[in-house]
Amino acid sequence: MQAVSRPATRVRGVLFDRDETIAYTDTGVYREVAVWAAREYGLDPRVVGQALQAQWAAQEDPAQVGGWWGLRSEADEAAYWERYAQELAARLDLPAERLGLLLQEWPYERYMKAYPAARGVLEALRARGVKVGVLSNTLPSIGVTLDAIGLGDVVDVAIASCSLGVHKPERDAYLRSADLMELPVQEILFVDDKPENVTAAREAGMRAALIDLRHGTPGALHDLRDVLELV
């Protein structure tokens, strides 16, 4: 598919996906957590690592009953993480109250890092007077994660699909995001690593670019800085 569509209207806002677009999960953190938990709880770090991977894999269908797609508030999210801790504790044969320390020391956002070019690109866009938004299929606490990776102060509008109640690639996710950015859809450039989300954004009226920072998709953008050439 083409990396970008090019309507004639001026781009006044760029709406980024978060994961694999401006940020990524640092898998090395899983090893750090396993070593920490082994020291804290006297467990084999390999057992801890396997339990962490198995527990997260169990969340792969977010639309399942009890999955995170149904979360609508940070209070809902807090209850979700409490259940998560209980399930992980069972995998490790530990009392749930002891595992609370692990989630305090290693919260979700500690696993995430910003891509090296991300901050410079967002700053450059805002310096041009372009509004910066982030729309991610994620938990309500998106602002916490953006702050943790050092990008919160260069994002004008942070939107979690859970808080919206609709998820990409549903059309309303894009239309409601445009409302929150206070811009017409045709004046927004949407950037995402998933082709289905890019297609849906175009169908909703946005300009849209496919990005693949792992360089595996022909025709996609392969450098976050290339976004600046589209604005």
UniProtKB/TrEMBL annotation:
Coiled coil: none annotated. Gene3D superfamilies: HAD superfamily/HAD-like. Keywords: Hydrolase. The keyword Flavoprotein does not apply. InterPro entries: HAD-like_sf, HAD-SF_hydro_IA, HAD_sf, S-2-haloacid_dehalogenase. Pfam families: Hydrolase. The keyword Repeat does not apply. This is Hydrolase. The lineage of its organism: Bacteria, Thermotogati, Deinococcota, Deinococci, Deinococcales.
